[in-house]
Specification:
It contains 10 helices and 12 strands. Helix 6 packs antiparallel against helix 7 and helix 9 packs antiparallel against helix 10. The two termini are about 60 Å apart. It has about 375 residues and is an alpha+beta fold. It folds into 3 domains: about 130 residues, 2-Layer Sandwich (Beta-Lactamase); about 90 residues, Helix Hairpins, CATH 1.10.287; about 160 residues, Histidine kinase-like ATPase, C-terminal domain (Heat Shock Protein 90, 2-Layer Sandwich). The protein is elongated, with a radius of gyration of 31 Å. The protein binds adenosine-5'-diphosphate and magnesium ion.
């Protein structure tokens, strides 16, 4: 009978199964329903630094750092009781701890299998230290590039900014002279002097606000997302852009729908996008035309920043190329503005789209998810 045969499929199966486990590149750990380790393949030995022999029977929580180590028995018990899965059948990024105590990021997927008597869990673990490091480096490079481009933009706006700061300074100086004259005249009216001093203060505030905006954009900083009122974020950018608009003799106006839902964004990055789009618009529109920046929402889930210009519009053949790095039709363009803008918007879980307006000119739309689903976007 084949069941008594020495080369029964079962025996082959057992040895074959072990060979299969050991050949796997990923670490594979099987535990019983109490969390005790039953199987530990060769990759798991290499990854965690324990031999299968020494770890068999131990609680799997010893492969995790705190606080997971402490909490794991509770998770397991709760799952067995309620069937409420946090990781089983889902898979996610987690942390592992080696025998020497070092902690590393891992991708973990967990499956369960049952026979008539009991349930077991199999965990498949992949070390993602390198992937995480690569991601970090890419993010860092991207942040540096964004920063350099922001400085570049500010540099291009320097003449306008200097002019803009000069205005309140001139006003302050004029008010100071007026105050002096009032005092010299001997006919000092307190009310009049107070008014002059208040005006002086307001002008100093105005200059301070411009400098604050510039410093904010010029600062080197890691990306940082918070819940923001997008209308205000856009407004801050427009106040800086206005400086340029006056120099270009372009009429820049911004409108925002009331009560927009907040979005989960890095304000400086979004301002960089708005500045890029407005400056592009400004560079194509003839003098005395208008640029409109509208902030609106079409649904609870999305806020839209729309930049519309009266320029020549986009060459239909080139629409798909304008977002490519280094694509430019300008003699002194970098071709990086739209590429960076798109990557900023995409990293926020949004979209950046370009269209021609039916009556001429171009429209760029930044579509951002609102803060309702903030945790889905990696923050
Ligand atoms: N509002 C616009 N109207 C027409 N063309 C535009 C507009 N914005 C961008 N473009 C086109 O997209 C190209 C790429 O823009 P961008 O990435 O900002 O680089 P740069 O401004 O340095 O050229 C521009 O050179 C231009 O041809
Ligand atoms: Mg540009």
């Amino acid at each position: 009978m084949f069941t008594n045969d020495d080369s029964s499929p079962d025996q082959h199966g057992e040895a074959g199964f072990q060979a299969l486990l050991d050949a796997a590149v990923d670490a594979i750990v099987v535990i019983d329903c109490r969390g005790h380790i039953e199987t530990f393949n060769r990759s798991a030995e290499k990854l965690f630094g324990y031999s299968a022999e020494e770890i068999r029977g131990s609680n799997v929580s010893m492969l995790m750092p705190q606080p997971y180590r402490r909490e794991h028995d509770g998770y397991l018990a709760r799952y067995l009781e309620t069937g409420e899965a946090r990781i089983i059948g889902i898979g996610r990024e987690a942390s592992g701890q080696r025998k020497d105590g070092t902690v590393f990021p891992m991708e973990l997927s967990v499956g369960e299998f049952r026979d008539s008597k009991t349930v077991r869990f199999v965990g498949i673990v992949r070390d993602i230290t390198e992937r995480k490091e690569t991601e970090r480096l890419i993010r860092q490079q991207q942040e540096r590039l964004e920063h350099v481009m922001r400085l570049g933009t500010l540099g291009e706006m320097a003449a306008g900014i200097a002019h803009e700061i000069n205005q309140p300074l001139t006003a302050i100086s004029t008010y100071a002279q007026a105050a002096r004259r009032l005092i010299d005249s001997g006919l000092m009216e307190d009310d009049r002097l107070l008014e002059v001093l208040e005006k002086t203060g307001a002008q100093a505030e105005r200059a301070g606000a411009i400098i604050r905006r510039i410093r904010n954009l010029a600062r080197k900083r890691p990306a940082q997302r918070e819940r923001h009122d997008i209308a205000r974020v856009v407004d801050e950018a427009l106040r800086l852009a206005e400086v340029d608009a006056r120099l270009h003799d372009v009429n820049l106006s911004g409108t925002a729908e009331p009560d927009l839902p907040p979005a989960w964004v890095d304000a400086v990055q979004i301002q960089q996008v708005v500045l890029n789009l407005v400056r592009n618009a400004m560079e194509t529109t003839p003098p005395s035309t208008s640029i409109m920046v509208e902030t609106l929402c079409r649904s609870e889930e999305e806020v839209i920043i729309r930049v519309c210009d009266d320029g020549p519009g986009l060459d239909e053949d080139l629409i798909s190329e304008i977002f490519n790095p280094f694509f430019t039709t300008k003699t002194h363009g970098t071709g990086m503005g739209l590429s960076i803008s798109r990557s900023i918007v995409t990293s926020h879980g949004g979209r950046l789209e370009a269209k021609n307006r039916p009556d001429g000119g171009a429209t760029f739309s930044v579509i951002l998810p609102t803060a309702m689903n903030e945790h889905e976007h990696g923050n």
